[in-house]
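Retry 2 of 3 after timeout on previous attempt. Resubmitting C-alpha cells to design endpoint.
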C-alpha cells in the first residue's frame, strides 16, 4: 500500500478564522510587509495587496528613473563581482555632514 501525503504548495489556499472582533491574523505570511490594500471584488472576495513603504527621504530615487537604473546597475555589478575596493571615503566627510 502506498501512502500519499499532500505537500503544502507555496500558493495553496489557507483557511483563516476571524476572532470575536472580526480580526484575522496573517502570521508569517505578513513578514516584511508594512501594510495591505484591501479590495472587494464583484463576487465578494477580499483581495489583499501587500505594500512595503519607504521613507519620504528615499522617495526621490523611485521618482528618478535614471538614478534608480544606476542603483540597480550597481547592485547587479556587485552581485556579479564587477566591483573593486576604492578605500574609505571617511576622509571626505566634514563636520557638517556627520
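Retry 2 succeeded. Sequence:
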Amino acid at each position: 500500500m502506498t501512502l500519499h501525503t499532500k505537500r503544502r504548495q507555496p500558493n495553496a489556499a489557507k483557511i483563516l478564522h476571524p476572532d470575536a472582533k472580526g480580526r484575522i491574523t496573517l502570521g508569517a505570511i505578513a513578514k516584511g510587509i508594512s501594510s495591505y490594500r484591501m479590495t472587494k471584488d464583484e463576487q465578494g472576495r477580499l483581495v489583499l495587496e501587500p505594500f512595503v513603504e519607504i521613507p519620504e527621504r528615499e522617495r526621490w530615487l523611485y521618482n528618478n528613473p535614471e538614478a534608480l537604473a544606476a542603483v540597480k546597475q550597481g547592485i547587479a555589478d556587485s552581485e556579479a563581482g564587477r566591483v573593486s575596493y576604492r578605500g574609505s571615503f571617511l576622509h571626505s566627510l566634514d563636520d557638517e555632514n556627520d
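Attempt log closed. The two ends are 71 Å apart (CA to CA).
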